[in-house]
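Researcher: Let's do a round of design. I'm pasting the structure tokens now; please hold your answer until I've finished.
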């Protein structure tokens, strides 16, 4: 289990839709809730290294049942002979904290939610560092998640099955392909023996760009 020493309050404020420096009231809420969020969450991750096979139907990843379809993932894994599939969660405690604060103070609930969003990305970064300190990966891509570009969100289920994520870290998926607990991430990272071509990344490639609160304000949901 990964332990966070701190959660980026600047990133949490950005998730709250705040541009520039937050005012004193937001700063006070984030300062007060950040240690509470760190105390309650229980970050966990699981991963698996798989071969990458390009077929006429799409890309196959080892024991992942579904074929990965779409041009975005094909470009993302171009030149990769292996990949890591990854699942990360902050545990059900994150969801409980967000719901509990919503009962008494919606501003606190929003702050807790956004601190958890910042935290899960930090956990993904730390998990990636640990993983690639243990396995050989001369070159690798960035994390690519189901629902990004034209990669179907329905892939979530098969990734979790291939990782045995429900048993190992308590991560499940709904019929609508939403992860439970909600503060969780699945991702695919390509591995290559040669430098990888930088694939498209950003709002222009995201299927949620029309409804995203970040894109409406001219921001992106990630700085990576």
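Researcher: That's everything. Go ahead.
Model: Designed sequence:
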């Amino acid at each position: 289990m990964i332990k966070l020493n701190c959660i980026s309050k600047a990133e949490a404020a950005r998730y709250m839709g705040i541009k520039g420096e937050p005012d004193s009231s937001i700063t006070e809420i984030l300062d007060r809730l950040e240690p509470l969020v760190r105390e309650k969450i229980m970050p966990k991750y699981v991963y698996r290294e798989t071969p990458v096979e390009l077929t006429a139907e799409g890309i196959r990843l080892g024991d992942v049942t579904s074929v990965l379809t779409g041009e975005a993932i094909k470009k993302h894994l171009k030149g990769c002979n292996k990949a890591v599939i990854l699942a990360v969660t902050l545990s059900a405690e994150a969801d409980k904290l967000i719901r509990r604060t919503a009962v008494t103070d919606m501003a606190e609930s929003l702050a807790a939610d956004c601190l958890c969003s910042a935290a899960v990305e930090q956990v993904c970064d730390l998990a990636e560092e640990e993983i690639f300190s243990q396995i050989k990966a001369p070159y690798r891509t960035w994390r690519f998640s189901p629902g990004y570009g034209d990669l179907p969100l329905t892939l979530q289920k098969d990734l979790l099955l291939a990782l045995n994520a429900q048993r190992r870290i308590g991560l499940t998926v709904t019929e609508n392909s939403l992860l439970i607990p909600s503060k969780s991430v699945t991702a695919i990272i390509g591995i290559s023996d040669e430098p990888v071509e930088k694939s498209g990344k950003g709002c222009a490639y995201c299927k949620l760009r029309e409804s995203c609160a970040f894109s409406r304000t001219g921001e992106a949901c990630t700085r990576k």
